[in-house]
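Now for a sample.
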Amino acid sequence: MAHAVDVERPDLHHQRVTLIEHRASLPRLKDRTPGADHPTMAPGGRFRRRARTLVAGLAVALSALPSLGAPPADARGRSGGIDLTAGENGSGMPAIPVVYPDGTRSVSRAAVIFSDLDANDTWALKAIDYVAATKDWMRDFAPKPDGTYPFRPDATETRKYFARSVVRAFAPKELPDPSIVFADIDPSTAWYRFAAVAVAHGWMTRTSDGAFLPDKAVTMATVHKALVLALGLKPAATALDAIHTHTGVTFDLPPNFGTTLLGMRLGLRYNAPTGSEANDVAPSDRMPRSQVAYSLFRAMTQPSWSVPDLLAQYRDVELPYLGPRQRDIVQWGVRFVGYPYVWGGEWGRESPEPAALGGQPRSGFDCSGFAWWLLRHDDGGAWNVAPPRPYAGWSLPQRTSHDMATMAPTKLSYHELRPGDLMFYDGDRDGTVDHVDTYIGNGYSLDSSSTPGGITVMWVGDGWYRDHFVFGRRILA
């Protein structure tokens, strides 16, 4: 493929780009006092504090108690020593590096200047430069009399413009199949070729009555689907859409489940820094042009090993036999694939998170927050996820991965793990747990990491996750 470059694949057990570099400016989890007001910062972000209302001394005392049997009374809501407003940075593997396929990073600013980019667009400048200045894939609007170009970073991207950018990037010389017709695009128009080529490849689709809906907004799921399929990951996406247990049990999956998940794994969704999570997008959100530029840029600058790796990890995805409780956890968890990584996030409902939990800018999860969403029991008060969660949950009063690990009554080896167990990781090898996810069997977990920036079904059977795994904890009795 034109985008792929043969670069040496990094040894997944000895990454040169380590989480020490990725997290150099972050406070160490082992230096946190449970219940204290410690700010946390994502890479490139700014500090953000969530409201803390509990007494640190009570939290310290509670952290020394064994986490066995029924949850203690003071672990419920804001009434005792567990801070429901706490959060932590997920670690996860280092981000996939950007590899420019032709060695050209950008053009001279004198050649193409965009007139409407400002400080709010700094995060996307490299991507916009590449897809609309170095390349013309998203150079969609005519220059002004002064020679500058509008990019319209905040405008919602529409299907016709997105189809044109994807075809320009992946199939620039391909002619349309004249048998493909649309109820709302005439073959004589300039938009027809791009829509027809995108549909012919399955990157985009028509409605049942043959409409392309050229002026309809694209969503994150739409963008991920087109780019993931264009990169050649259809076998993995198909397998994920049919994810099942060894005994043939299937799951009710959200639309575009496989391509949304793989897009997350490719790093196609920009993960807004801590304090700016309101700008994050979820699968059903409409995409501004700046976000689309970032996704297209990341798709076209993947290293040559990333797509084969994902094909190997997911092409034959299958889970083991799951008991009723384990099936419920997996069914509940897969609904949130593609939700963003949010520091301090533990809420996945459309309604706002209760103020007693600290509130959050949008639905999403950090690593231990997602473990809570999957496993923690309802407290009959603010922490009430059933309904809609179809099960009550289990005792898991600790909020951070470090505290969850500290209170493990038994440390499980990798080969002792069962679906529903917590997996703990030491991402920067400093001897302190800094990441957690939930094992679902056969080398897969339900995971929220700051890379890839949200919820995925993560492969943990080898590579970075297997190498940094320290031990597991059983939650289901």
